[in-house]
Amino acid sequence: MSPIISVQQLNKTYDSGFQALKDVNLEIRRGEIFALLGPNGAGKTTLISVICGIVNPTAGTVLADGHDIVRDFRAARSTIGLVPQELSTDAFETVWATVTFSRGLFGKPKNPAYVEKVLRDLSLWDKRKEKIIALSGGMKRRVMIAKALAHEPRILFLDEPTAGVDVELRRDMWEMVRGLRENGVTIILTTHYIEEAEEMADRVGVINRGEIVLVENKHTLMEKLGRKELRLQLSEPLSAVPESLAPMSLTLSADGHELVYSFDARHEHGDIAGLLRRLGELGIEFRDLRTRESSLEEIFVDLVHNGTPGGTDTPQPAAGDSQ
Amino acid sequence: MNLHAIRAIYLFEMARTWRTLMQSIASPVISTSLYFVVFGSAIGSRMVEIDGISYGAFIIPGLIMLMLLNESISNASFGIYMPKFSGTIYEVLSAPVSYVEVVLGYVGAAASKSIILGLLILATSRLFVDFGIEHPFAMLFFLVLTAVTFSLFGFIIGIWADGFEKLQIIPMMIVTPLTFLGGTFYSVNMLPPFWQTVTLFNPVVYLISGFRWSFYGVADVNVAVSLGMTVMFMLLCLATIWWIFKTGYRLKS
What we know:
The complex is a heterodimer.
Chain A: E1 5-13, E2 19-28, E3 33-37, H1 44-52, E4 59-64, E5 67-68, H2 73-78, E6 80-83, H3 95-105, H4 112-121, H5 137-149, E7 155-159, H6 167-182, E8 186-190, H7 194-200, E9 203-208, E10 211-217, H8 218-225, E11 227-234, E12 250-252, E13 258-264, H9 272-282, E14 286-293, H10 296-306
Parallel strand pairs in A: 3-8, 3-9, 6-7, 7-8
Antiparallel strand pairs in A: 1-2, 1-4, 4-5, 9-10, 11-13, 11-14, 12-13
Helix pairs in contact in A: 3-5
Chain B: H1 3-19, H2 21-43, H3 55-86, H4 89-93, H5 99-128, H6 136-160, H7 164-180, H8 193-199, H9 203-216, H10 223-247
Helix pairs in contact in B: 1-5, 2-3, 2-5, 3-5, 3-6, 3-7, 3-9, 5-6, 6-9, 6-10, 9-10
């Protein structure tokens, strides 16, 4: 199946000389939730803005559902909905008017039944007659989403969708995004909240300094690049890690009650069986054990700051993934 | 052609007018009426006729033109500046609309408001001064042409402006003085020869002269020249707007 978005050799250099995007290649699959991660200034918003037509590219091509965003901009833009990072709304318009306006702007005839459905899905129906200025920040965010969905897009960009919203609303948003995906909408979201990507995304892309550092299936990424820990609560404290266990990557807590075995998740389960056998041989007993995986956040920090995911030294692919 | 988009922008802009009825409609009608009261009825009754027309009637085309220019510029510049200021311009830029459709929506709405206002002031002036219109269709043509042309000009100002102050600079510092010095309250022929020549460099002279001709059949300059100058200015505005959208000047990074 052809990708719904195809970005080829995309470059963007601003008038100031700052190169925001460097030879970006990226393919988004139909019907997936794709999370684009990156620190501030990495190029996330510029990439989205170019695809949506808000920023002119310096070089490269972008196809949205097979349509070139420059040559065939009408068809390309008709397929895309955008929820920008900033809460940019017409303060004195009513919710109903602004959503209806968005539908018309994207070339769709009036369809009050569809607008009603969007507003109901976003719990905005009761607020339809209210002016946007009177809404809370969370409600305004919902209005932005309603506007983006008003023309029935097949691709939805969510630029930091849950920035500044409370936990409950964030959960609601996640549910809504999943619901959209079930209806066949492809979702691309940028976020600072790693748990958001971890919770929702099918695939994760990491951008840093204008370059796509990695694109990977979320689970594969965590399995391949994450680190795991086995934490053993010892029955009796140890003063030091026994010498015979020195070759294994073990650390002992300050009070001597916890032994931590860290291993690369790519190596299946490390040598847990070997460790437990050796502990038995040494007469070291434990009363509890638990394992913990690296979070996406830790992987992301490693990628961005150390250039090596999960502390490994393996160069990562710039685009595409192993699936 | 994305007709739904043009309609959406147009209705959205017009809705703003109806929402701010006092500011958009009542205020310019009242302020122009004050000119009629002061210059038309009070002072005008003591003034001599100009070109055989009573002073009160003589100033009507000029006053309508004064309001028309200011309102066209103000409506159009504000209409496109506000989305830039509030950030909602992202939606227009990311929509499947061409610049022609954007201009038709915004400029069409701004010009519509000005034309409605022009007709309202024309009707109001009849309460204060007795006058006739010799060429009503030509009058309407000049009214529409001027409203569209100066709405285009206002659209350019709205894109160029990066602050509220700049929105006001050109209407306040250039357009209003040119209108006052363009024959609103006097005939150019009343000036000394040197200043008559200088006045011909003022483009507003041609607008007022052509408009006044449609009312009374008398003009300071040939009506064809008035029409030609107005059309030329409109083409200049269209060319500037084409360049703005081609380059993304102050719209796109």
